[in-house]
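Re: the 140-residue chain
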Amino acid sequence: MPQDRYGSRARSRTRPGLRWALIAVVLVALVGVAIVGYRNLGSAPIEGKQVAFEILDDHSVQIILEVQRDEPQRPADCVVRARAESGAEVGRKEVLIQPADGITRQETVLRTSARATIGEVYGCTYNVPEYLSTHLRPTG
């Protein structure tokens, strides 16, 4: 290009170091978003589901649950609950899931404050409270 016709080429206003710093910040932010997305939307490390339930009487329900873990050698704590026809929770209990290979199936009976219409698994975690892993029971 002839300089006398178009003028000299405009100089870049950004410094090369600043450009690389901005690229690095954007990359770090993208990696952070990817990690948060994977943790929130990826597969759960532990998953519990209700396989069956049976209403035994007006104040108890039997629940059979299956637990699948990515670390089956670790104990787990699952919360099961019963709900009445209105949807109100009428019973809740924590169940200790012992370490085992593969999918674990466990049965428990849950006492309720009123007649239940469903028994279900509320959720599972690897954070087992001390009172579940020992013979101590909570007081208070």
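Helices lie at 3-6, 16-41, 130-133.
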